[in-house]
Structure formats: structure tokens, C-alpha cells
Amino acid sequence: MSATHRSCIRLVNAEFYAWHGVNSEENRLGGKYEVDVELNFDFRTAALADDIASTVDYQRAYETIRIVMTGRKAALIESLALEIATALMKQFPALESVTAKVRKRNLPLGGLCDYAEAEHRIDRA
To answer: Residue 66 half-sphere exposure, CB side, CA atoms within 13 Å?
Structure first.
């Protein structure tokens, strides 16, 4: 009997204080951002060997996300989601796909809204 295996590692709600936004006040004061990533690849080899060298090291993935989030200023959370997904795909050739979500709290909307979120997914060809 044949079986299909699907594996995924998720980093959920990584929090960063950063200075992104369209408005100059957002760039000056900064704000709270949250990031989720879903890293899809076959981790059976790593799981069976219990060997970190055979998997996607999520500590390294987190560091990549941190560098993007706290590096250059971006006007759009869409830019950040794309940059995170692209960087992770480049860093980890084992990834079949990656989805990055960036949430922005404390929106300057003039009304109540919990957060805005941008999501970007890349599938390896």
C-alpha cells in the first residue's frame, strides 16, 4: 500500500517591534508586528534519524525572519511577507513551499480593527 506523506513546521506569532508603514508617524513611533510562517517539506529522514542536520532548523528560520522584520523600513506589510518567503526559500533548498503571514497591530484607520494581515506563498517549481 502506498502512502502520501506531508510534513510541515510552523512558527506562529513571532513578535517584533519595528518601524514600518506608509505614514511618517508609523516610521517614527514604530509598532508591533506578528509573523507566522509555514515551512513545507518532507522531514521523514530527519524524524527517523532524530537529526537536526537533516531538517529545516527553525532557529535559523526565525533569525531570517528577525533580520527582515528589523532591518530596512518597509511601507507595506505585503513587501515584508514577500521578502520573508523569498529569503526562506533561498536559505532552505529542502523547502517545497513556504507561506509567510505578517500582521500589523494598532492600525491608523480612525476606527477599531484588530489587525491587518498580508500573506504570501511560494511553491518550488
So the answer is: 6
Q: Which domain holds residue 32?
A: 8-123
**Segment-wise mean pLDDT, segments of 10 residues, the chain, 125 residues:** 85 96 82 96 92 92 98 95 98 96 85 91 94
Cα 86 from chain centroid?
10
- pTM given for the model: 0.91
- Strand, coil or helix: 31: strand
Kindly state the DSSP code that residue 22 receives in the 8-state scheme. Answer: S
The cell for 99 is: 507561506
How many angstroms from the chain centroid is the CA of residue 39? 9
CATH number at residue 89: 3.30.1130.10
Is residue 1 assigned to a domain? Answer: no
Residue 50 lies in a domain: yes
Catalytic residue annotation: 104
Residue 92 lies in a domain: yes
